[in-house]
Structures are given as structure tokens and as C-alpha cells.
Amino acid sequence: MGRIKRTFGFIVNHPLAKRHIARSICRFLIWQLQCNLRQEKLFIKEFLGPVKFYVRKGLAGLTGNLYVGLHEFHEMAFLLHFLRPEDNFFDIGANVGSYSLLACGVCGARGVAIEPAKATFELLAMNIALNKLQDKVIIINSAAGASNGLLTFTSSEDTTNHVVAHNEHTDREKVTVSAITIDSLAQSNSPALIKIDVEGYETEVLRGMTQTLERPGLKAIIIELNGSGERYEFIEEDIHHLLLSKKFKPYQYDAFQRTLAPTTTYGDFNTIYCRDLNFIERRLKTAQPIKVMGESI
Predict the structure, then answer these.
(1) What dihedral do alpha carbons 2, 3, 9, 11 form, nearest 10°?
(2) How many structural domains does the chain have?
(3) For residue 207, what are the domain limits?
(4) One domain, residues 267 and 160
(5) pLDDT per residue over 243-295, tens digit each?
């Protein structure tokens, strides 16, 4: 019951879904019926435009898209309005590929998707193959870190899988995975946009992308800073100041108006850091509309 209440709270507070409450709730109820009445473990569902994905019950990062069109509405809409086919997109902590599918399947950009959890990576690979994006997206079953090596990860927590901290005591299933640096990947595929969602390990990811941060072609970073860095004794305010020192500034995106509003600090969840604002705003204003929940955005 608690999970259902949280889902309804998510729907009624979602920027787009609350404009289409009846449709979103119907989508939620239909999904629940399908999961309980049909025997399939995996379903193929429409996402956006020509893009589809495999989804099963419990995959919060995908089922949210089923209910409300775009789970992380403003950030996903920013990606859709900003990226062009000539761009490279890095999806760090790709999970099962929502952002990569939008970037490469809808926008036509080229992508690199990094996901350490094996079972999650396998579904990511299936989603890329389902949309025939193997030539567009390089998928890597590794973690991103400050250096090449090995890291211990949880593997049974869906969107909240994370690097196990040195002082963390957990009974969750754990695996050892390889770690690579973003700088090693960006030498031949310099990204215009990077999404980082690594459950508190952002500090180490950024330590491994110092050269990438210097490249003028990198215009924006979508990063989740929700306090999870405390488990590693990282200070997320340091990330904010690092990005400021590289001429990035934090913004909130209004997808309906296609406007970026400056904010004085990072948010509780995703924050969009931008530089070369004139370039970004021109792209946002001139992007083709996207149709979500029957509405052109």
C-alpha cells in the first residue's frame, strides 16, 4: 500500500502528469492489471516517438515513463530539446537506458552508456538492440571512477545500486565490477551533454573526467546530488564549486516555456549545469516539438 501511495504522489506532483491526471492514473492501473493477469516477465512498451523499451514490474526507472510519459520530465525534455544528431551523449549510471534511448533513438545523437550492474546492463543491451541502436550507442558494463580498477557494487537495488562504501554494512547482494575513467572514453567521443546518476559516487566520477571538463564542446551536465555522497564522506558542495570553477552554472529548466532559470545552488535531485548559455538557449528554442501525453512540448 505504501508503494502505491508513493506512486500516486509521484503522478499527481509530476509537472506533465498533473495536467493529464486521468490519463496517467489509467496508465498506472492498466500496467498493474497487465502485471498481475499476464504471465510475461518482460513487456515491450512504447516510449517516445519510434522508441520502445522492455520493462518488467519493479523497474521504477522505466515504469515511471509508462505512467507520466517522461519520468524526469524537465531534465529529459532538456536533453530532447538540446541534443542534435551531430552530438555525443554520455550516460553515466545508465541503468536500463531511458536517457540513452531518448538521446540516440529520438534525437539521433551518438552515445556511450555505462552501467555496472550485470542484470541491469543486460536489460540495457536488450533495449538498445530492440531499437536497433547498436551502431549508435556504445554500451559498457563497468563503473565510472577516478581511475581504472575494481569496485564493489550492490546488485539488487534497481535504480539505487551503488558503490559499497568502505564502512558500509549491508546484507544486499554484492558484485565486483571493473572501473574506468570518463577521460579514457572521451578521447575519441567528446560529449556535448553528460548525465551522471551514480548514487553518491559523483565526486570520484568527476575526478576521472578532469580533461573532459576542460573541453569546450561539453556544454551541459545533468547530475543528481541528493545527499548520497555522505555515505562516502564526500561533500557535495565541493562538486558544485568544482563545476562553477569550470564555468558551469546551475539552472532549472522549464520544458513548457523552454527557458532556463538560474539557481544559486544545486537541487535535492537532478540539477542541470550549463556553460555557453547563448549556444544552449538557441538550441532549446529551435528544437522540434516533442509529443508527450498527447501534448506538444
Answers:
(1) -160
(2) 2
(3) 72-289
(4) yes
(5) 999 999 999 999 999 999 999 877 677 999 999 999 999 999 999 999 999 99
